[in-house]
């Protein structure tokens, strides 16, 4: 491995760019590996899962680039610089960097001083340095930023290349006006709505409108957000701004806490969407029929919006690979026609989603639903991961009914699961007896190894551990994990 061709080594390192532990380990192999990995680590050195409060070396590296005059000025202010000579550095680190994360910069600057003023001027010198040293700026997370860095002399050249911006609504509109003047080729824009004092988003709307190649747009309301102006659409400016980008946006996520009539009118216009995450709770059936996304590959929707989900599936172009049903998976009396809608949802999947790979299903333990589920397994031959939620609507099942539900599910899976299936997740009104589970695992032998994820209440008892261990050792089970429900239902959670 240590003698890999440099180009091959670079491609491998690229694949590990989100795996900080592996990348940091590669630094220790030899000089070639180190020279290959350092540029990847320093593209965005603020993104890794490390404790920046205690990483003095990052602080020292940045300070080493400051001029002697600036160092002297900062020292007079009482800031401890912990300097290191530039001559001792193996690489020109800042020339490799393409990103800024304001929150992490705040943390690193606090190493020099905890005083607010000193922290402020040190951050300003850091940003000024970045504008001079970075060859280009690709990513900016400006949440909590206190400096209008687009006014620095070299900022225009840096911001012209900005591809991804993450921000929040606590930032004054004037900041977005400044960005709109310089940044017109942002491809990914992620906004956290945290400010309940205002629904005036003119600055953000202006920034959206000037973009020429916006492909990814995400808006997320903070869970604690309270908007106190009923009768108004608090998202109108934003929705109308993204309406102008229907020709370029292919990934749209709108996580609104409140109703947006404007959204109802605009969403049908996004004909190029490949990824969609939005709530359709207030949509009428006529409005749902207007949602036609022929290129859609992934969509996310609340678990109780099965009717909206099957309308989207019906009008899709047959390219869907992943569906996500958001929790909490608690269907109560306010959800109309759950039994019928869940049945139609299953049917629409096997009629329109032959390419589906990641699929959650929520349905009651009724004979017709089990039958349609088995039909789906026989038709959808590309399935890789299944989340199965058995929900006995308005009924608290007894223990024997839970075991019967589990037995029925496992029998269907053995008879009809496609060979592509690698992972099954279970929650809801279902349990498995030790005998039923062993029979299932024995019959699974000879297929690709299976990963199983459940909450503790389904398979967490001690008596199952020996059985699970046996089938892990002989290759029937690849991974087994009892997790919190939040992890079980998160289709991006890996074990």
TrEMBL record:
Gene3D superfamilies: Ribonuclease Inhibitor
SUPFAM superfamilies from the UniProt entry: RNI-like
InterPro entries to which the protein is assigned, alphabetical: LRR_dom_sf
Protein name according to UniProt: F-box domain-containing protein
Organism: Rhizophagus irregularis (strain DAOM 197198w) (Glomus intraradices)
